[in-house]
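Lecture 7, part 2: worked example. A protein chain together with NDP.
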Amino acid sequence: MESDMQFEYAAAPESRTIVNIKSKYGHFIDGKFVAGSKHFPTINPATEEILSHVAKAGKTEVDAAVKAARKAYLSTWSKMSGKERGKYLYRIARILQERSREFAVLESLDNGKPIREARDTDIPLAAAHFFYHAGWADKLDYAGLGIAPKPLGVAGQIIPWNFPLLMLAWKVAPALAAGNTVVLKPAESTPLTALLFAQVCQQAELPAGVVNILTGDGSTGALIVNHPGVDKIAFTGSTEVGKIIARTVAPTNKSVTLELGGKAANIVFDDAPIDEAVEGIVNGIFFNQGHVCCAGSRLLLQENIADEVLHKLKNRMEKIRVGDPLDKNTDVGAINSKEQISKIIDLAAAGDQEGAERWSPNCKLPTKGFWFAPTIFTGVTQAHRIAREEIFGPVLSVLTFRTPAEAIEKANNTPFGLSAGIWSEKGSRTLWASQQLRAGVIWANTFNKFDPASPFGGYKESGWGREGGRHGLSAYLKGANNE
Ligand code: NDP
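Predicted complex, written out as structure tokens:
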């Protein structure tokens, strides 16, 4: 039943006193923080306040980090028993839990995401990845990847800004469990939780050089990718940079996994539980401001229920709370950067120009910082840019279909293939549709659910390889996929 009752919310800000942000940071190399030469600011995108200055790693620092990782790999980490490695991973997982509030507040400040999501999704899932992979460390012989599978060596890991600590956990936990050492670069706009994670490595007494963290920009990432001392590249980010990396490593012996963009179809059939579907649509595209590679950014509605779903969706969106990310009531926070908001504004303008109809709820946006009202475009056709390109923001493109076959054809009509959603009461229809969809992850009657045991990855321009589960582990071991 629909209700128009709306509560007034008093502000419920989370205190930021728990975080201790230094004015300047260096790099984490060989178990120690070392001073950087050049620095750049990292800001709070909700207020544009400068939080700190972090160092930009160049060739010297990349060389030092790769050397430290190689030394740790040869002298300690690859020699240590899986059981011992597992103990370190368990220790890291427990420290992440113990310091979860500190991580959640810092993530929210540096990224702009609502504290509720950092607290309830990012940080618990990051800890879960370490727990899960700690369990694998002494059981690699039973992973179905051959007897006594061997690590690859030094992994260069480059991560984006949308889930900073969680993407670090997706990369670092399997690498370490399998016996590799790492050189990781967080995104230029969200380096702070990776630097706090470096402190966790020290607290866990992880042997020096097993994890090295270099801050910097794309040029630092390129230096890591090109470094001859790196055996494997794990990258999450844009398809554009993914293609550059693929070209760079093609003539080398490096193994590579690429988690790239997406333009997922969230398909609602006419037998779907509509109220649940509406919640799933909202979660699918407005979670984390739509900065989600697997976001349900294309809503495909069966024509005979389209009006009803859109009416309920807009009604639901009128109640969404956009604003201060540190307020525990907030549903949608700030856009991560100036560059990202201009990309969203441009693509939304293309939606207007190409004839789609724009709608946003009545919400007051803060005056400082980077903000974009949650937006729904109806009347979208498959040729529109907003139906084809990854917007990576809180913008939903709505298309309709008449028959299940048409839904599949439209869903698959994309260069991407990362995820999809199916809303239907019929198990047979769900199974049929999931077999037709070219997407690595398919959710049924839910969306954006993650678990470390479940492999995640895409087809086509969404990338190569899988992260999570046994499949993700195999990407860090010499075996069927890598030798
Ligand atoms: P990028 O792909 O540029 O960034 C991802 C990571 O790669 C960052 O750490 C970045 O560093 C680094 N990087 C940039 N250039 C290179 C390079 N040549 N070699 C190695 N590493 C590099 O994404 P953006 O942050 O620029 O975002 C642009 C668009 O990409 C977004 O609008 C969105 O559409 C998409 N995107 C998709 C993501 C996904 O999960 N699928 C995640 C992030 C973005 P730095 O941050 O310092 O530039």
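The chain has a mean pLDDT of 96. The two ends are 57 Å apart (CA to CA). Keep this in mind for problem set question 3.
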